[in-house]
Amino acid sequence: MKEKDIDFLILQYLKKKGYSHAEQVFRVQSNLDQAVAEELTGKQGQSHSLDTDAGLQDLLFCVAAEANPQAYVDSFDQLAAWADSSLDLYRMELQRVLYPVFVHVYLQLVQYGASHVAADLLKQYRRRLVEVGGRQSSIRAQELNELQAVAVAQHLDAHPFAKAARSSRSTLLLSAYSFELLMHYLQGRKQWLLLSILNSHVRFELHEGLPLLDAAAAGDDEGAGLLQGQAGHDVGAINTTPLDLGLLRDGTEDAYATQKLQEEEERLAKQTAGASAAAAAAAAEDGFTEAFGNDMLEDGAPLSAAAQQASAAAKRLKAVRDKALAAAKAKQKEILESRRMPMIPLLPAHEKLKKSQRDDLEARVQLHPPDNLPSAAFFSILNSQQTLTSMTVSPDTKLVAAGFSDSSLRLYHLALLGKQRGKLGERAEKRAAGLLPQAGAKRARGAAHRGEAGDGMDVDAEEEELLEELEDLSNQQTMCLVGHSGTVNALSFSVDQQLLFSASSDSTVRLWSTELRKGLAAYRGHVYPVWDVAACPHGSYLVSGGSDRTARLWSTEHARPLRIYAGHQSDVDSVAWHPNSQYIATGSSDRTVRLWDVGTGACVRLMSAQSACPTCLAFSPDGRQLAAGTEDGSVSVYDLGSARRMALLEGHTGPVWSAAYSRGSGSLLATGGADRTLRLFSMPACDNILDAINQELAAAAAGDPAGADAAAGGGASGAGRASGTGIAAGAAAAGTRGAAQHAGAGTAGVGAAGGSAAAGSHHAGGAVPQYQPYQLLRTFTTQATPVIHVGFSPRNLLLAGGPWSLQPPSRQARPGGGQ
Questions:
Q1: CA distance 595 to 244
Q2: Phi/psi of residue 346, each to 5°?
């Protein structure tokens, strides 16, 4: 019933009863002028065709039925029977209306205190509602399980699903004629209760023509859930917001690439000059000093075969190199022009950090799946199955930070761990060689100290010194940080690795100094547990997400949040920074992933996580794609420009707790989870400036048939390097050495911590597959460690870790997480 009809009925009632004063007050308070009131009451012609008695009867029926739970049950039963008896052409579309109506009928019954009636209705229709398009919908099954947990009226404002359902409007796609049939039935049968639900909680999108009979019309699994269409028509507006996903200008990698390209150009110029000199010398032997542009001697006699070959090789080599350099410079210019300026103030990187980043770029290993896969260092922490809740490794692989359920943090210094292992090995070797007394000597010394008889042996001074050194190393290698009063749920190092951020269930985020190993600040603003925290890749910002359904932007220089990002219908469980630091991504238990503009605080992308809640997020190095791991073991990869899911990666049999892209081209995605596996997926290569320049150099040389002949000339080695290996080869060689050094340190740290590296591995399908994007390349299975952290060092060493667990980990939630 329209609001105009209700106003008409009230005015008719007041006029019939002679309540002229009340009628006047109603007109004033309802903002009805005299003309509108006369039109409603019929004084200016009978333009309103509503029958007064019938309208009053309908209104009274609707008001009375709202307090009668059985009226809701009867109305829904009749609607289900009518949809099932519809013509085959329209039945599939009309049956789609049942699910959102059922959910809100259930919630209305709970609101009126008829929980037992609601439970019976759910039991009656559960099996039917879970089936979508002839198959079981995991989304609906999960939503109905959550709906079943809403048992009393107090849950309506406390349960996340109930709150989200009552505050949002789902979207249904129907043909125009199916919608007319539905409205004709509801109005003809006076189903005012159901009409009220549809008007308040459902938005219909109509299309012309015949009903859609494919899986999309019947309700595919991606759109079967009630909350899949939340935010309604706003989703389209949000996802068409223009984005500038380019990386920041004047980055260290761009400067490094420019420097290397200039060095390559100088090197090639020298080699070209050398090749020209060699050709000139060959021609001089025939009595002619100008080899280029002339194949004849001064007397008209032809050049010798050797002179002609040298001249042709020099020309072809110069052409190949000129072409390669021109292509590389053009690609470099194209990439640099796509860079953007920051819209928020960022602190410039200090020289020490820039030097460290350049060293990492020089030593970075270029990963090219499926053949060139990374080395891995895995860290397990003993005796922490029920207590370890979070873990992270510093980018320089010197520190491992771990958070525990007892509110403490621990920092493990990997270099000292390796040094201690070396000292223990040295001690064992000396004892085996008889250079140190055996363990019984120490017991003899203790007996003598107590006044007991002994054999007179004492510990050697060298043994004393070694024991003291081991004790010092033991005290330094592990540091316990205390400050939180709740479980430590997440950890994140700053870009310079001097600061460590921690998020806790005590509703705070704390800042720690890794050098002083002390707490520096506490950020208070969240009112419930904080589930995740992430440090900005540029500057002194951090972002946190918590159970209060918000994400908050902080600065190390301020104690209060700079921005609050609100919009999720449930806990914000995971957060991540875009590589350009101008956007942040949040994943929530409402099964959505949002992208926010850091400066304005506006939501610029809204994507559904489909079948389960997102548990971790990872941006590709170029910022064009976002990977979201979920609690059902799948990983969704989204294109941020179009806000569409590009791929669904499957393989895990438990929740995915961490994900990370490889550095540089981002051709690998590593994921780890509760199933105690670490998996590598192939990804589309990003537009990385170093790789792009090398590819242009290689492509230009490979496309010229003279490249093969040039190898026979004096500049053969130079031609090979001109084809693109000049920049990449040095980086790959240095990167291999760097990876080996890091792997050695990591292995020492693992052993000292008592962990185990990946116990076994196998290729998907038993053999190395040909490279294709979004394919499972390899699976590493740990002995007894669920993987709660995955990352890549700047040199592309794969880092992962977790707690030693003799029992299978929980498949429901990450330790200390928000699910």
A1: 12
A2: -125, 140
* Percent above pLDDT 90 for the chain: 33
Could you tell me the strand order of the sheet in which 376-381 lies?
376-381, 798-803, 789-792
Of 457, 450, 455, 411, the C-alpha closest to 436 is 457
Q: Which of 483-487, 685-689, 758-762 has the lowest mean pLDDT?
A: 758-762
The string of DSSP letters for 150-198 reads --SGGGGTTSHHHHHHHH--EEEEEEHHHHHHHHHHHHHTT-HHHHHHH
Residue 490: C-alpha distances to residues 301, 669, 675, 789, 791 (Å): 82, 21, 20, 10, 14
Name the range with the highest mean pLDDT among 41-55, 243-257, 464-478, 551-565: 551-565
Per-residue CA distances from 242 to 325, 628, 633, 670 (Å): 34, 22, 32, 30
Between 586 and 437, where is the model more confident? 586
Give the C-alpha distances (Å, rounded to integers) separating 240 from 336, 502, 625. 25, 35, 16
Average pLDDT, the chain: 77
Residue 472's contacts (CB-CB under 8 Å, 6 or more residues apart) are: none
Answer yes or no: is pLDDT of 423 > 90: no
Residue 432 buriedness (CB in 10 A; 0-12 / 13-18 / 19+): exposed
For residue 768, with 0-12 CB atoms within 10 Å meaning exposed, 13-18 middle and 19 or more buried, which class applies? middle
- Write down the pLDDT at residue 596: 96
Is the preceding peptide bond at 370 cis, omega within 30 degrees of 0?
yes
- DSSP letter for each residue of 487-504: -EEEEEE-TTSSEEEEEE
Task: Show Cβ contacts of residue 717 under 8 Å, excluding neighbours closer than 6 positions.
Answer: none
- Ramachandran bin of 286, using left for φ above 0, alpha for ψ from -120 to 50, beta for the remaining angles: alpha
pTM of the model: 0.66
Contacts of 177 (CB under 8 A, 6+ apart): 90, 211
Return the structure tokens found at 371: 């053949």
Sign, CA torsion 257/258/263/267: positive
Q: Read off the DSSP letter of residue 651.
A: -
The pLDDT of residue 578 is 96
Q: What share of the chain is helix, strand, coil (3-state, %, to 5)?
A: 45, 25, 35
**How long a stretch of residues is the chain?**
819
Look at 404-418, 456-470, 507-521 and tell me which has the smallest mean pLDDT.
456-470
From CA 300, how far away is CA 251, in angstroms rounded? 58
Question: Residue 61 has which token pair?
Answer: 């029926």
Is the separation of the CB atoms in 553 and 573 below 8 Å? no
- Output the CA–CA distances (angstroms, integers) from residue 540 to 550, 596, 690, in the order listed: 20, 18, 27
Distance CA 325, CA 313 (A): 18
Q: Which residues contact 292 (CB under 8 A, 6 or more apart)?
A: 276, 279, 311, 314, 315
Asked if 248 contacts 350 with a C-beta cutoff of 8 angstroms, the reply is no
What does the pLDDT look like over 718-756, one tens digit per residue? 333 333 334 433 333 333 333 333 333 333 334 333 333
**What angle do the packed helices 115-130 and 98-111 form, to 10 degrees?**
160
Q: Can you list the alpha helix ranges (DSSP code H) found in 597-664?
A: none
User: Model confidence at 424, in pLDDT bands (50, 70, 90)?
Assistant: low
Q: Which pairing describes strands 376-381 and 789-792: parallel, antiparallel, or unpaired?
A: unpaired
What own/partner pairs with CB < 8 Å and gap ≥ 24 does 757-762 have? 757/376, 757/377, 757/378, 758/376, 758/378, 758/678, 758/782, 759/783
Exposure b/e, 32-69, CB count within 10 A at least 16 = b: beeebbebbbeeeeeeeebeeeebeebbeebeebbeeb
Q: Does residue 290 have a pLDDT over 50? A: no
At which residue do the structure tokens 């499926």 appear? 370
Distance between CA atoms of 299 and 747, rounded to whole angstroms? 73
pLDDT at 422: 64
45's CB contacts (< 8 A; 6+ apart) are none
441 in Cβ contact with 450 (< 8 Å): no
Contact 567, 603 (CB under 8 A): yes
